[in-house]
């Protein structure tokens, strides 16, 4: 369960620096994950994360709760900033040999290179995900595709995307409550 | 059963992804305000995605907070130093102040709509009631000065487009203040009549020749909105703006015999 901290968000919109700190604590790590899954470079991901949170501070008043979740608002800013970055020339020069394709590849890399991370927890994620889940979640969530863009990319009917995606997320939720 | 069907349709996952068209998102928001089961579902989806994202993060970026705070301070300082040399900055500072006040007001109005949630969150945020009351008072005062805010907009590089009343409502009037740099529109709609039950206003960006309308948003909660200033995103290169009355939830194309106001962008 993750209740949206509406009071805190109102404080952020009123430019309260303390509220900004708490928002950062709550949303920075997941946002960092989303950015990293797109740019695949820790240093660049840090740069983008800074830009994203500066923007969250500066543009907080443009968040409108009737349009969606604050989580989604932050996600949109992060995805756009990360994708913009990958289009820059400097980035293209640096990342010529990028091979990893899905966020799941990162999870797999992570279990190989670091002993500090909770390898068992991460493996659970990987094992639980069917191949089509990896693709659907990667496109819709991490890359911000619309339903119809994803439908075209994966050559799957719109309705199928919607229900399969639901099944994939349910699988993740099962692991979380285990 | 209906509710279960809605939840299992997969629409809520797309809602949290931000993959739905804006109008559908607005509808989902309304649903989750009415049904705690839907809200709970959305919160669980969000929690799962948060966990998934965290598991992809190389590490917790806690240490970057300080760097970001410094950048914010630097930016603010830069604004203050330039202030006496460039009088225009005064407007910017004022603008930021008023924008913050309006944002606060909007934030508070939406928060007040769910008092319980407000209380819980406020406890969590350690904000005392007295502070809140002060903020509400301040926000009300600033609402009275919205007119002044609009003056400030005029000083900046903002395009103002008056939208005159059309056949169905000759007395109607609205004004679009369009900041092309940020793609934001501040729509002053206080001279529009209150829409009848089951209807709401929809705002359209138009390009002429050939005439192509693009929806830029709905004025939902029109009657509850105190200052009748609506902030909308407009990434289009608009040549005109129109407002029509549509069934709740909006329409794909404007209902032309319900065109309330229309105005053409000068120098476009």
Describe the structure.
The complex is a heterodimer of chains A (178) and B (268). Chain A is an all-alpha fold. Chain A contains ten helices and no strands. Chain A is globular and about 45 Å long. The two termini of chain A are 14 Å apart. By secondary structure, chain B is α+β, with helices and mostly antiparallel strands. Chain B has helices spanning 2-8, 11-17, 22-34, 36-56, 64-82, 88-112, 115-125, 129-144, 146-155; strands at residues 159-165, 173-179, 184-191, 199-207, 212-218, 229-233, 240-247, 259-264. In chain B, strands 5-4-7-8-1-2-3-6 form an eight-stranded antiparallel β-sheet, covered by helices on one side. In chain B, helix 3 (22-34) crosses helix 4, helix 6 (88-112) packs across helix 8 (129-144) and helix 6 crosses helix 9. Chain B is globular. Residues 81-89 of chain B have low confidence and may be disordered. Classes of the chains: A mainly alpha (178), B alpha+beta (268). The interface between A and B is large, with 74 and 71 residues. Chain A: This is ECF RNA polymerase sigma factor SigK.
Shape category of chain B: globular
Q: Kindly state the number of beta strands of chain A.
A: 0
Indicate the radius of gyration of chain A in whole angstroms: 17 Å
How much of the residues of chain B is beta strand, in percent? Answer: 15-25%
Q: Report the top-level CATH class of the largest domain in chain A.
A: Mainly Alpha
Q: Any idea what the radius of gyration of chain B is?
A: 21 Å
Largest interface: A-B, 74 and 71 residues
Strand content of chain A: under 5%
Question: Structurally, how many domains make up the residues of chain A?
Answer: 2
User: How is the CATH topology of the largest domain in chain B named?
Assistant: Immunoglobulin-like
Please tally the helical runs of chain A, counting DSSP H or I stretches of 4 or more residues.
Answer: 10
CATH class of the largest domain in chain B, named: Mainly Beta
């Amino acid at each position: 369960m993750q209740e949206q901290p509406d009071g805190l968000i109102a404080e952020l919109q009123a430019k309260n620096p303390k509220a900004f700190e708490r928002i950062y604590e709550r949303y920075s790590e997941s946002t960092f994950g989303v950015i990293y899954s797109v740019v695949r470079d820790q240093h660049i991901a840090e740069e983008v994360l800074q830009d994203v949170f500066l923007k969250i501070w500066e543009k907080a008043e443009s968040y409108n709760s009737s349009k969606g979740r604050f989580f989604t608002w932050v996600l949109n800013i992060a995805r756009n900033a990360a994708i913009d970055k990958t289009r820059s020339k400097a980035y293209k020069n640096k990342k010529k040999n990028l091979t990893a394709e899905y966020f799941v590849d990162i999870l797999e890399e992570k279990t190989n290179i670091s002993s500090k991370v909770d390898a068992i927890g991460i493996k659970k994620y990987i094992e639980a995900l069917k191949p089509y889940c990896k693709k659907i979640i990667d496109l819709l969530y991490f890359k911000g595709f619309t339903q119809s863009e994803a439908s075209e990319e994966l050559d799957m009917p719109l309705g199928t995307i919607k229900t399969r995606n639901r099944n994939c997320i349910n699988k993740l939720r099962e692991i979380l409550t285990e | 059963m209906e509710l279960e069907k809605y939840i299992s349709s997969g629409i809520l996952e797309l809602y949290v992804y931000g993959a739905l068209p804006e109008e559908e998102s607005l509808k989902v928001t309304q649903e989750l305000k009415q049904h705690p089961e839907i809200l709970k579902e959305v919160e669980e989806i969000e929690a799962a995605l948060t966990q998934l994202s965290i598991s992809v993060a190389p590490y917790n970026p806690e240490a970057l907070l300080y760097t970001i705070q410094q950048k914010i301070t630097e930016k603010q300082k830069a604004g203050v130093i330039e202030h006496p040399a460039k009088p225009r900055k005064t407007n910017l500072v004022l603008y930021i102040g008023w924008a913050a006040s309006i944002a606060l007001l909007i934030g508070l109005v939406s928060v007040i709509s769910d008092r319980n949630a407000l209380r819980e969150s406020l406890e969590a945020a350690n904000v005392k009631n007295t502070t809140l009351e002060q903020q509400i008072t301040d926000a009300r005062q600033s609402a009275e000065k919205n007119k002044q805010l609009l003056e400030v907009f005029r000083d900046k590089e903002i395009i103002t487009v008056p939208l005159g009343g059309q056949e169905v409502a000759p007395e109607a009037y609205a004004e679009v203040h369009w900041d092309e740099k940020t793609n934001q529109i501040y729509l002053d709609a206080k001279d529009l009549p209150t829409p009848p039950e089951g209807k709401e206003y929809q705002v359209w960006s138009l390009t002429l020749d050939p005439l192509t309308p693009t929806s830029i948003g709905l004025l939902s909660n029109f009657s509850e909105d105190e200052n009748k200033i609506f902030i909308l995103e407009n990434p289009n290169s608009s040549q005109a703006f129109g407002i029509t009355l549509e069934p709740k939830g909006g329409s794909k194309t404007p209902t032309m015999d319900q065109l309330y106001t229309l105005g053409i962008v000068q120098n476009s």
